[in-house]
Amino acid sequence: MTGTVVNQAISIAPCVLDERCEALRREVREFIADELKGYSALAKAKNWSESDPDFSRKLGAKGWIGMTWPREYGGAARSSLERYVVMEELLAAGAPVGAHWTADRQSGPLLMRYAPALARRIVPSIVKGDAYFCIGMSEPDSGSDLASIRTRAEKVDGGWVINGTKLWTTGAQHAGYMIALVRTSGTSADRHTGLSQVLVDMKSPGITVQPIRNVVGDADFNTVIFDGVKVADECVIGQPGDGWMQVTSELAFERSGPERYLSNTQLVLEMLAVADEGDARHKVEVGRLVADYAVLRQMSLGVAGMLSRKEDAGLAAALVKDQGAVLEQRIPEVAHALFADAAHAADSSFRQVCDYATQASVSYSLRGGTREILRGIIARGLGMR
Ligand SMILES: Cc1cc2nc3c(=O)[nH]c(=O)nc-3n(C[C@H](O)[C@H](O)[C@H](O)COP(=O)(O)OP(=O)(O)OC[C@H]3O[C@@H](n4cnc5c(N)ncnc54)[C@H](O)[C@@H]3O)c2cc1C
């Protein structure tokens, strides 16, 4: 280190939820308790990886999708803190929110901001829990280095023709639409210049979706191949060439939600169920996890508060996502350290959830931006690189 004074800081102001939010929380809890009767512990452990269109439609009918969006798009014009409460209750309870999650979190806001005509056509269906989206950013050889993507859209009369391959596309098998990042001019050497986001109807001729089986045996993500897929001019989101600027602001939404630390809650509940109150080690270790949860929740809620005040939350969101993944990956480690010796039958909920969480957690520091990339963003934000 040189003697340079670093004056940047990450500041997350505390956020307090008002009575309106807490009343909504009670309503959501009541609804979920009823809806999730009969769900297995393993199904709950999968929370936002699990898609259930019927459940999404029920949430839509309650007004809990697109909650903050303007009424002209079918939204409920509620506050982002009310939305936060609904999200954390759904996730903590292990509700199957995967079908509509991406559309609610980022695709709807993207369309309303940069493509109002498309938004007027599609967003009301998102709000009803009928329209699902997937995100086509990553490609073979382009993940962290997203600017190197090679999928191209060539201009033709009345629209664009897309050729290329997207990789790790979560939910492409269920989604009606993809927001694809494509190159509309120049070459990979031009990096951030010449990239655009395009709305693709997943039923278009020329699209092949190939499932990829992950380590737990599920096929959440896919390879998506575009072979001469035609999209209309109006499907370019914003202006051609604005894709990079749009993607970076979209990633702040993608990284800031409570799903970045509430994926393994079911395992904490399972640990509490099998822990021995008289065992000091159980108390200390599980207590530490719960304390860390409390800190992360305050940070995540603080980020929600920043977003509600329209402040730039990109750096704080990167910090919460990174620290959320650290905690989530520690939870199965603690479960093994404390309870590995105890006899838990293979079909016990503790064993099933623990096995699932152990394997699934590996991906938590990859999806939505890897640990190293997030820490690079944080270091840059703090003026350290
Ligand atoms: C469960 C899951 C769901 C996903 N869903 C989607 C989706 O829906 N849509 C989508 O577009 N993508 C999705 N992804 C892809 C995800 O965004 C990428 O996996 C991620 O961005 C990393 O890219 P990569 O896999 O190509 O790894 P690489 O970028 O090749 O990284 C490999 C390793 O090198 C490190 N590394 C790379 N560059 C640097 C650097 N400059 N400095 C330091 N270290 C570096 C990384 O941190 C990582 O540890 C998903 C991934 C997972 C695991």
Explain the overall architecture.
The chain is of the alpha+beta class and 385 residues long. It has helices at residues 19-35, 41-45, 53-62, 80-93, 98-114, 116-127, 243-256, 265-274, 280-308, 314-339, 349-360, 371-381, and strands at residues 133-136, 152-156, 159-166, 177-183, 195-201, 207-212, 221-232, 236-237. The strands form 2 sheets. The chain has a 4-stranded mixed sheet with strand order 1-4-5-8, with helices on one face. A 4-stranded antiparallel sheet has the order 2-3-7-6, with no helix packed on it. α7 crosses α10, α9 (280-308) packs antiparallel against α10 (314-339) and α10 (314-339) packs across α11 (349-360). The longest helix has 29 residues, at 280-308. It is globular and about 75 Å long. 43% of the residues are buried. The model has no long low-confidence stretch (mean pLDDT 94). The site of flavin-adenine dinucleotide has 19 residues, from β1 and α12.
Keywords:
single chain, binds flavin-adenine dinucleotide, 4-stranded antiparallel beta sheet, 385 residues, alpha+beta
Strand content: 5-15%
- State mean pLDDT (0 to 100 scale): 94
pLDDT below 50 for ≥5 consecutive residues: which ranges?
Answer: none
Rg measurement, Å: 21 Å
Question: Helical proportion?
Answer: 40-55%
**Category from helices, strands and their pairing:** alpha+beta
Find the count of extended strands (DSSP E, 2+ residues).
8
Which hetero compounds are present in the coordinates? flavin-adenine dinucleotide
